[in-house]
Write a structure and sequence with these properties.
This protein has about 300 residues and is mainly alpha-helical. It has 12 helices and no strands. The two termini are about 20 Å apart. The chain has a domain of about 160 residues.
């Protein structure tokens, strides 16, 4: 299931990078080699299934956005995948506002001349998703008298937002609890922060370059970035609400952010590519170093669980 997820992630990144196939492979490979990705994707669970279905839905959304094919087939296919994603894990529900936002952006590109078609496409997809989810809704109403049941386990409304963010950040990259005896927490956190800062610097250079060139490439479009950022924002808000009101245990479940990892793969490739522009040797060194670090981290995880 983890391999299927990475395949759909590759397809998503291919839509964004266009002819730059190696960039799509690099982005998907980076996410796939994250210790948390390998840890979750290597076993049978609904997390890997949710990542695969969520990413497949994002691929279909971005593909429709790029090609502007607002036909019934694409709407029903997208709705089917969104419905299955929601049944796999509740993050799938967050695809619905992304579908509606994509329809708005598609219509906006034509100065709202195809607004009716975009709205029909969006509601067709949402309607299909609701239809797929309806047996579960009906079952919940019969069994627990609630459309979407929630279990209360150690609710703690006083959990600081910063602590939640820190925990999500730490446990997104790797199942740190398995290697906490081998790796210093502060060193681990600082190394990740430094890596993210370097990638962010590269993204700044990318945006400056886009502004100077005034190009209409997918990766230079603000609406494309909004579509890719939305899963991160929505899942974070969803987890924040869940942690504050329902289950404080969600603090250490950074894996729940993995369905939105397409943004990470795209950003890492873009950022590091800008910082090593026109220097092939530097690109090769960066790939080797990052690959070696990820392999070493995965070996540590494998030894910890064996």
């Amino acid at each position: 299931m983890g391999s299927i997820w990475i395949y759909f992630l590759y397809r998503l990144l291919r839509e964004l990078f266009g002819r730059r196939r190696f960039a799509a492979v690099a982005g998907a490979g980076f996410v796939g080699m994250l210790p948390m990705s390998a840890y979750i994707g290597g076993v049978v669970n609904n997390d890997a299934l949710a990542c695969a279905l969520f990413t497949a839905a994002m691929w279909l959304i971005v593909k429709t956005f790029r090609q502007e094919r607002l036909n019934a087939g694409s709407a029903l296919t997208l709705g089917l995948v969104c419905g299955l994603a929601a049944l796999a894990k509740s993050q799938g529900f967050l695809l619905i506002p992304i579908v509606l936002l994509a329809a708005l952006f598609i219509s906006r590109r034509s100065n709202y001349e195809n607004l009716a078609s975009a709205v029909t496409w969006a509601f067709g997809a949402v309607g299909m998703a609701v239809l797929v989810m309806s047996p579960w809704f009906i079952r919940n109403m019969i069994v627990v008298d609630s459309v979407i049941p929630q279990s209360l386990h150690n609710p703690n409304p006083l959990v600081p937002i910063w602590f939640l963010t820190d925990q999500l950040f730490k446990y997104f990259w790797t199942p740190f609890w398995l290697i906490s005896d081998l790796v210093d927490e502060q060193v681990y956190a600082k190394a990740l922060e430094l890596f993210c800062a370097v990638v962010f610097l590269g993204l700044v250079l990318h945006f400056v370059k886009c502004r100077k060139r005034k190009t209409e490439e997918m990766l230079c479009r603000a609406d494309v970035w909004v579509l890719m950022v939305m899963p991160v924002v929505l899942i974070y808000v969803f987890l924040l609400r869940h942690t504050l009101l329902v289950d404080v245990g969600a603090l250490q479940q950074g894996r729940l952010m993995l369905p939105s990892a397409g943004l990470l793969g795209m950003s890492v490739v873009l950022g590091l590519d800008q910082l090593t522009a026109k220097n092939r040797l530097a690109k090769i060194v960066v790939v080797i170093v990052i690959g070696a670090v990820l392999i070493a981290a995965n070996v540590m995880i494998m030894r910890a669980v064996s």
